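Backbone-to-sequence.
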């Protein structure tokens, strides 16, 4: 296994950008609205590489993300009105400091395991390689729509194609982004009345 190289990382990022509209991927995931690339796996001279698009959150989404990060440091039973106010203040401060929240596109080298060994990946965060692949990643298309990239399924499809177990060019569709789950405010009732007069009990743990 070769050492992780920042120079090679930039080269691979550039290669994927150049081939974004082309074919030749072992597996790829594209936006269903405009066909832009969200993720892909390709065989390069030095091995199998995967590319994942970046993500950009709208200011309101970034604010919600920062507030959720603050609330997650407390047990739900501790979510008092004061904690909610502190969470909002924290989100305001973070948005002022960081601006629009986002993540750049990334690449990782795929190291298929032999037999029952797990797939290992090598990237900037794990230059010595690590076992396991993330299930999903939030990505943003150029059309500004958000999608959940099925990273594990994409990598697995690419490895199968590279091993001759599937035809190259496998398309892995993106997943829809789950609706954010609004935390239940202190004192909020779990009971509500539907439009047809039925009593609805919301037991979802927010």
């Amino acid at each position: 296994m070769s050492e992780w190289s920042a120079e090679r990382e930039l080269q691979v990022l550039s290669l994927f950008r150049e081939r974004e509209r082309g074919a030749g991927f072992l597996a790829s995931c594209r936006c269903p609205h405009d066909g832009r690339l969200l993720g892909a796996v390709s065989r390069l001279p030095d091995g199998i590489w995967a590319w994942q698009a970046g993500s950009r959150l709208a200011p309101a989404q970034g604010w919600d993300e920062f507030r959720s990060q603050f609330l997650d440091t407390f047990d739900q039973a501790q979510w008092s009105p004061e904690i909610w106010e502190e969470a909002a203040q924290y989100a305001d401060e973070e948005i002022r400091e960081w601006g629009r929240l986002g993540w750049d596109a990334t690449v990782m080298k795929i190291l298929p395991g032999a037999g029952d060994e797990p797939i290992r990946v090598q990237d900037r965060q794990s230059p010595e390689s690590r076992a396991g692949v993330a299930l999903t990643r939030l990505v943003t298309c150029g059309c500004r729509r958000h999608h959940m990239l099925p990273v594990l399924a994409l990598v697995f499809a690419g490895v199968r194609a590279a091993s001759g177990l599937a035809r190259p060019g496998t398309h892995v569709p993106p997943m829809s982004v789950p609706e954010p789950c609004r935390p239940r405010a202190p004192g909020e009732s779990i009971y509500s009345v539907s439009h047809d007069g039925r009593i609805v009990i919301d037991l979802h743990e927010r």
